[in-house]
């Protein structure tokens, strides 16, 4: 081969692996810009569209469009000078002349040919497969045809209970079938991945979700005239269905290779060596069409690895394709299923630990080496949170903790079991889709300072495939930063060399009231979007003056800036306060009338109030004018402030109630409304121990007892939910309020910016015991001061929207165009949804 | 993203608003020749800036509502949607190099703000 001239590479197949090959080739060429390599790439694809994400094919039925699934738009190929022929499969290879000929007659020369023809659905020879209403589940075209046919079908079935079959069954449910059946020949579901016990549990879970599962069933015939009307099984039983998807396995697309005289396996697959060369060394095969190490690798990760192996060789490097781990984790119809290493190895070759909780729908199995030191494999169903950790422990042969069951049973009141991500060896593969090791990620964080998921995604491509490694990568970032001592002192930003708590004390002692005076006295530079909201928040927490006055408006965060929640598209949402969730019919009518008048989408919130979306900036003052006239006040849904105090009806109506929960909730909400804090504050009052108001998930929650109230604090929902902890029992109304006063003020004064009460408590040395000692026992002797401070804030409360409505200078800020105040932003657009409107999707 | 500004001889000064309409250390949006322009009164530095009002990340007309500030001395604005930050001098995105915005010349005369388009 002449190394001086351009190398011509032809890729046959534009599926996920074929695309990944192009992507990897380009990025490798880019990073070796100085080299003498010069390539010309031609790609032929059989399907009418460019490569798309086949792994997430079922999301097409959840509303994703075919374009959403594209791995790269057609323009990407153009921009990178790749000649792409779609709807044009290669029909012949002339190995002598080194050319390929396509269906449309294009003849292209190659120096290297890469076969990435993938696989087709295997359709078993059952009589009747040709009938209308019988489908395979492979391409977007298959999906489109199913979608069309499903409109006249009510009962659907899938033949095949493997991974793809269950995906297809989900598609049937998404298509709105009244009945969906799965028919599997083997005695268990997903026979390649999970064991009998796991299959039993998965079957139960799937049946609860409305799927009918038939095991050990062999189909003799597909019945019906022109269209399918049922399945006849070998055991004599019959099943009426009017739609069928066959997902009984895959068949490698090796016919092109076979006709070209390359070696293929009698049962399918283009035979390749360790370098992925076919019997013609100028021709490679990658992905599901290739038979490597005597097997077809039917997953995307090994396919990507194959692409990498070939790219490396074409760039002059050396790399072999090693037998690839077939571990997998996926969510099937909402049920987590994972299988890794050797899931089936049995005693006495290993020790097996099983955990099963049928009520919760969880099954876990791990297989441990006889000496108890290494993890060999396992299965997780219903809860696969530990998958990444276990997979790494398995692959890297990490030494297990003495109590190996901790690996699957998790933390039971103690230190973290086994080892976190930091204990993994450097070469541990964290992102298996993109083959990125712990060492590569650590290097990015330590040396290149990529300390957020977003920047790491950009620089390494980690988490961009299946996304399953994201939690692990987050832990890794934190672990590396901690190891570098980066969390030692939490200064606010480059403009303030103080922690929030330090700055709060300084601002208070110096009686500062505006951002600029604080910056002049204690900061440097011009400020930024980090310190401005922090200072704005602590000014509000200290003085409770209107946030938009005295030049404070431009330092407020996005929502506080216009006292409303900025939503997708540039409109705002409006939430009036409804204390305790109690509202009169008259006020409900006002909300309805206002929403109707200004064309707003309405929704009941989780906090027992009503949110109105889609308000133009310029309409906000008029909307509030009407709401205020009807007796409403700001709900501070836009602020890091007290949001709602939810309640159940308690003794006023409920036959179980022991205290008047609504009255107390109304009192508590009215006491703390407008109180700004490091993060939002939520509360609830329940009228008895049944806890209908869910008070234990709140920053402060109150639950009625026969004798008074139990007060719980520091509960949070959010990403990492945490139950509130008991602070005081059987206290009366006044004591309860007093304790909440102290608790809130202590939190406001000591928490870091944007830290909710649960993480605040978690970081507090001594935890709830210490918090109790401060708030209830007053060991610091500050209780009286805390009470006085919060009372001062409560005394100066006024509805900030009322102030805006009544103050022309404030009101005039609420316009989109400064030079055309009556004109609305013409770019705002809505879409229709269930008789209301919604924001237009991001472009 | 094309960041080049047209040659001076093709620029025209347009009256945008009164200087007192623009909050100190904040911004407003003006409609000029059908274009949405964000104007910032960086009072702390006694400087004025004008940029596109549209944030290129999600095509939202929002930059005038963003917080301004500095990063190592470079004046910037943060989009209120997802906090992408842009240099007020060059229009370059400081948090994600994929994006950029146009910047425009501004002058204040006799209490009136003019933008060159």
UniProtKB/TrEMBL annotation, chain A:
Task: List the GO molecular function terms.
Answer: 2 iron, 2 sulfur cluster binding; 4 iron, 4 sulfur cluster binding; flavin adenine dinucleotide binding; heme binding; metal ion binding; NADP binding; nitrite reductase activity
Q: Which cofactor does it need?
A: [4Fe-4S] cluster; FAD; siroheme; [2Fe-2S] cluster
Q: Which PROSITE patterns match?
A: NIR_SIR
Would you kindly state one Gene Ontology biological process term found in this protein's UniProt entry?
A: nitrate assimilation
The entry's siroheme-binding residues are 692
Domain (Nitrite/Sulfite reductase ferredoxin-like): give its ranges. Answer: 567-629
Q: Which residues form the BFD-like [2Fe-2S]-binding domain?
A: 429-478, 491-540
Q: Give all residue intervals belonging to the FAD/NAD(P)-binding domain.
A: 8-294
As to how many cofactors bind and how, the note says: Binds 1 [4Fe-4S] cluster per subunit.
Task: Please state every residue range assigned to the domain named NADH-rubredoxin oxidoreductase C-terminal.
Answer: 327-398
InterPro entries, alphabetically?
BFD-like_2Fe2S-bd_dom (IPR007419), BFD-like_2Fe2S-bd_dom_sf (IPR041854), FAD/NAD-bd_sf (IPR036188), FAD/NAD-binding_dom (IPR023753), FAD/NAD-linked_Rdtase_dimer_sf (IPR016156), NasD-like (IPR052034), NiRdtase/SiRdtase_haem-b_fer (IPR005117), Nit/Sulf_reduc_fer-like_dom_sf (IPR036136)
Q: Which SUPFAM superfamilies does the entry link to?
A: FAD/NAD(P)-binding domain, Nitrite and sulphite reductase 4Fe-4S domain-like, Nitrite/Sulfite reductase N-terminal domain-like
UniProt: [4Fe-4S] cluster binding residues: 648, 654, 688, 692
Q: Where does the Nitrite/sulphite reductase 4Fe-4S domain lie? A: 639-764
CDD domains noted in UniProt: NirB_Fer2_BFD-like_2
- What domain of life does the native source organism fall in? Bacteria
Pathway assignment: Nitrogen metabolism; nitrate reduction (assimilation)
Q: Which UniProt keywords apply?
A: 2Fe-2S, 4Fe-4S, FAD, Flavoprotein, Heme, Iron, Iron-sulfur, Metal-binding, Nitrate assimilation, Oxidoreductase
Family the UniProt entry places it in: Belongs to the nitrite and sulfite reductase 4Fe-4S domain family.
State the name under which the record lists this protein.
Nitrite reductase large subunit
Automatic annotation (TrEMBL), chain B:
Question: PANTHER family per the record?
Answer: NITRITE REDUCTASE (NADH) SMALL SUBUNIT, PTHR40562
| InterPro entries xrefs | NirD (IPR017881), Rieske-like_NirD (IPR012748), Rieske_2Fe-2S (IPR017941), Rieske_2Fe-2S_sf (IPR036922)
GN (gene name):
nirD
Residue ranges of the TM segments: none
Q: State the NCBIfam families in the record.
A: nirD_assim_sml (TIGR02378)
Which Gene Ontology BP terms does the record give? nitrate assimilation
Q: Which domain of life is it from?
A: Bacteria
Designated name of the protein: Nitrite reductase small subunit
Question: A single GO molecular function, which one?
Answer: metal ion binding
One Pfam family cited in the UniProt record for this chain: Rieske_2
Q: Which UniProt keywords apply?
A: 2Fe-2S, Iron, Iron-sulfur, Metal-binding, Nitrate assimilation, Oxidoreductase
Q: Where is the Rieske domain?
A: 14-115
């Amino acid at each position: 081969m002449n190394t001086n001239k351009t190398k011509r590479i032809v890729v046959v197949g534009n599926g996920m692996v074929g695309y990944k090959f192009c992507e990897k080739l380009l990025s490798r060429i880019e990073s070796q810009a100085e080299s003498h390599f010069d390539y010309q790439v031609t790609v032929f694809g059989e399907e009418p569209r460019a490569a798309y994400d086949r792994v997430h094919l079922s999301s097409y039925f959840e509303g994703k469009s075919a374009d959403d699934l594209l791995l790269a738009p057609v323009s990407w190929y153009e921009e990178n000078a790749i000649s792409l022929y779609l709807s044009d499969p290669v029909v012949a290879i002339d190995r002598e002349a080194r050319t390929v000929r396509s269906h449309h007659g294009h003849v292209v020369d190659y120096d290297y040919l890469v076969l990435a023809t993938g696989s087709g659905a295997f359709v078993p020879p059952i009589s009747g497969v040709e009938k209308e209403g019988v489908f395979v589940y492979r391409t977007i075209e298959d999906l489109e045809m199913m979608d069309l046919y499903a409109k006249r079908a009510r009962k659907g079935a899938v033949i095949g209970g493997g991974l793809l079959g269950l995906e297809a069954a989900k598609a049937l449910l998404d298509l709105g079938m009244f009945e969906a059946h799965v028919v599997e020949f083997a005695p268990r579901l997903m026979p390649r991945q999970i064991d009998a016990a796991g299959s039993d549990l998965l079957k139960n879970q799937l049946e609860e979700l409305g799927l009918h599962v038939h095991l050990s069933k062999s189909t003799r015939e597909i019945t019906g005239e022109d269209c399918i009307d049922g399945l006849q099984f070998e055991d004599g039983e019959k099943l009426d269905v009017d739609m069928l998807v066959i997902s009984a396995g895959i068949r490698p697309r090796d016919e092109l290779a076979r006709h070209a005289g390359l070696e293929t396996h009698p049962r399918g697959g283009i035979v390749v060596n360790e370098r992925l060369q076919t019997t013609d060394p100028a021709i490679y095969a990658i992905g599901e069409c290739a038979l490597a190490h005597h097997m077809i690798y039917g997953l995307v990760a090994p396919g990507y690895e194959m692409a990498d192996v070939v790219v490396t060789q074409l760039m002059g490097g050396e790399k072999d394709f090693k037998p690839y781990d077939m571990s997998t984790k996926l969510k099937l119809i909402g049920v987590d299923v994972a299988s890794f290493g050797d899931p089936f190895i049995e005693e006495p070759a290993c020790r097996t630990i099983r955990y099963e909780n049928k009520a919760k729908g969880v099954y876990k199995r791990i297989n441990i080496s006889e000496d108890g030191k290494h993890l060999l494999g396992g299965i997780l169903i219903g809860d696969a949170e530990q998958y990444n950790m276990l997979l790494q422990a398995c692959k890297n042969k990490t030494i297990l903790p003495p109590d190996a069951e901790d690996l699957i049973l998790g933390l039971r009141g103690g230190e973290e079991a086994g080892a976190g991500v930091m204990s993994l060896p450097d070469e541990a593969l964290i992102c298996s889709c993109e083959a990125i090791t712990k060492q590569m990620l650590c290097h990015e964080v330590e040396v290149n300072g990529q300390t957020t998921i977003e920047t790491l995604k950009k620089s390494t491509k980690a988490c961009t495939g299946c996304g399953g490694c994201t939690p692990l990568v987050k832990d890794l970032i934190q672990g590396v930063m901690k190891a570098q001592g980066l969390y030692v002192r939490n200064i606010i930003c480059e403009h303030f060399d103080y922690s929030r708590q330090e700055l709060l004390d300084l601002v208070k002692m110096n009686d500062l009231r505006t951002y600029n005076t604080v910056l002049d006295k204690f900061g440097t530079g011009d400020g930024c979007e980090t310190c401005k909201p922090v200072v704005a928040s602590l000014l509000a927490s200290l003085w409770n003056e209107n946030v938009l006055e005295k030049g404070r408006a431009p330092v407020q965060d996005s929502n506080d800036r216009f006292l409303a929640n900025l939503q997708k598209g540039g409109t705002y949402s409006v939430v009036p306060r409804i204390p305790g969730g109690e509202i009169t019919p008259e006020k409900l009518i006002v909300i309805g009338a206002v929403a109707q008048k200004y064309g707003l989408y309405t929704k009941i919130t989780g906090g027992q109030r009503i949110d109105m979306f889609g308000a133009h900036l310029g309409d906000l003052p008029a909307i509030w004018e009407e709401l205020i006239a009807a007796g409403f006040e700001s709900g501070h849904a836009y602020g890091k402030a007290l949001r709602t105090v939810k309640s159940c009806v308690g003794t006023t109506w409920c036959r179980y109630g022991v205290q008047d929960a609504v009255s107390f909730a109304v009192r508590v909400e009215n006491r703390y409304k407008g109180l700004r804090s490091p993060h939002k504050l939520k509360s609830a009052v329940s009228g008895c121990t049944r806890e209908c108001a869910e008070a234990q998930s709140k920053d402060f929650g109150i639950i009625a007892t026969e004798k008074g109230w139990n007060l719980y604090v520091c509960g949070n929902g959010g990403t990492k939910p945490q139950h509130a902890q008991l602070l005081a029992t059987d206290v009366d109304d006044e004591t309860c309020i007093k304790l909440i006063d102290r608790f809130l003020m202590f939190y406001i004064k000591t928490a870091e910016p944007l830290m909710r009460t649960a993480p605040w408590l978690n970081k507090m040395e001594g935890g709830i015991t210490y918090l109790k000692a401060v708030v209830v026992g007053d060991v610091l002797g500050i209780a009286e001061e805390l009470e006085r401070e919060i009372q001062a804030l409560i005394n100066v409360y006024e509805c900030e929207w009322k102030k805006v409505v009544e103050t022309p200078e404030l009101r005039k800020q609420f316009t989109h165009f400064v030079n055309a105040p009556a004109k609305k932003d013409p770019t705002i657009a809505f879409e229709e949804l269930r008789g209301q409107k919604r924001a237009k999707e991001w472009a | 993203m094309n960041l080049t500004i047209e040659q001076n001889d093709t620029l025209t000064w347009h009256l945008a608003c009164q200087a007192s309409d623009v909050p100190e250390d904040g911004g407003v949006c003006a409609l000029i020749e059908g274009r949405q322009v964000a104007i910032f009164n960086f009072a702390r530095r006694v400087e004025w800036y004008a940029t596109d009002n549209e944030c290129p990340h999600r095509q939202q007309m929002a930059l005038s509502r963003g917080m301004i500030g500095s990063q190592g001395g470079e004046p910037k604005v943060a989009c209120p949607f997802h906090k992408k930050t842009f240099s007020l001098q060059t229009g370059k995105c400081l948090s994600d190099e994929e994006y950029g915005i146009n910047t425009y010349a501004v002058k204040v005369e006799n209490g009136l703000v003019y933008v060159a388009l």
